[in-house]
Design goal:
The protein is α/β, with parallel strands linked by helices and 202 residues long. The chain folds into two domains: 1-41; 42-201, 3-Layer(aba) Sandwich (Rossmann fold), CATH 3.40.50. Helices cover 46% and strands 19% of the residues. The chain has seven helices and six strands, in the order H-H-E-H-E-E-E-H-H-E-H-E-H. It has helices at residues 2-20, 23-40, 54-66, 98-105, 109-112, 134-151, 185-197, and strands at 44-49, 69-72, 84-92, 95-96, 116-123, 156-165. Strands 1, 2, 3, 4, 5 and 6 form a six-stranded mixed sheet that branches. The N and C termini lie far apart (46 Å). Bound molecules: flavin mononucleotide (FMN).
């Protein structure tokens, strides 16, 4: 009887306090619950093939936004553990790099069954400005098309994709011959926001 009374008092106190919670607190609660679910229940991974570090940086920013981890293409985990797989590569000669194509083509179709895949790449010539040449636009589309071709029969490739400019380094050191300073802070922020936007697939 005594315990029942305490329990009832506590429940009515909780209800009284719940009524005091405003819209702001409710949306905060919803957000942290969502982040909790994304982190512990649905899983995502960002895989990258990078020669000079640009693609790795972009992968890390996407992973930060998505609340997942970025792993190099030579350390690919068992993909059956993930719901969303973000795949990235750098571009060489207007195509996904050899290493990028190699890891995408080796994906195990059993492990990718019913999974969603998101594509991204970095390249020296990426230009999203309205005055980008048709040639650049066409090359960017072709890189995505080639990446998609390698995975489309194994998984569902989602519409959202990301191309980020990366400093062109002939050697693996130095700041680059073209597109110096890229990806810059703004582009890494863009990659992070891209990662955040992908949470809807989890
Ligand atoms: C050998 C080589 C070939 C490249 N070819 C192209 C190209 O055809 N088009 C382009 O836009 N960028 C090209 N780039 C630039 C890279 O795609 C760009 O610097 C990329 O961000 C490198 O990524 P990473 O630092 O992750 O290796 C090339 C770079 C190298 C080293």
């Amino acid at each position: 009887m005594y315990f029942k009374k305490i329990a009832l008092n506590n429940i009515s106190a909780i209800l009284r306090n719940l009524r005091k919670i405003g819209i702001e607190e409710l949306s905060f609660l919803r957000r942290i619950t969502n982040d909790f679910l994304v982190f512990f229940v649905s899983k995502s991974v960002v895989i990258y093939n990078s020669r000079g570090g640009n693609t790795e940086k972009v992968a890390s920013s996407i992973a930060e936004g998505l609340g997942s981890e970025a792993v190099s293409s030579d350390q690919i985990p068992d993909l059956s553990d993930y719901d969303l797989i973000v795949v990235g590569t750098w571009v060489a000669g207007g195509k996904p790099s050899g290493g990028g194509k190699e890891y995408l083509s080796k994906f195990n179709s059993e492990q990718l069954k019913d999974k969603k895949v998101v594509l991204f790449f970095t390249a020296g010539g990426v230009d999203h400005s309205p005055n980008a040449s048709d040639n650049i636009k066409k090359t960017m589309e072709q890189v995505f098309a080639e990446m998609e071709e390698l995975v489309k029969d194994k998984a569902e490739v989602v519409e959202e994709r990301l191309a980020i400019r990366g400093a062109f380094r002939l050697f693996r050191f130095g700041s680059g011959m073209f597109s110096r300073g890229h990806p810059n802070e703004e582009e890494l922020q863009q990659a992070k926001e891209f990662g955040e936007s992908l949470k809807k697939y989890l």
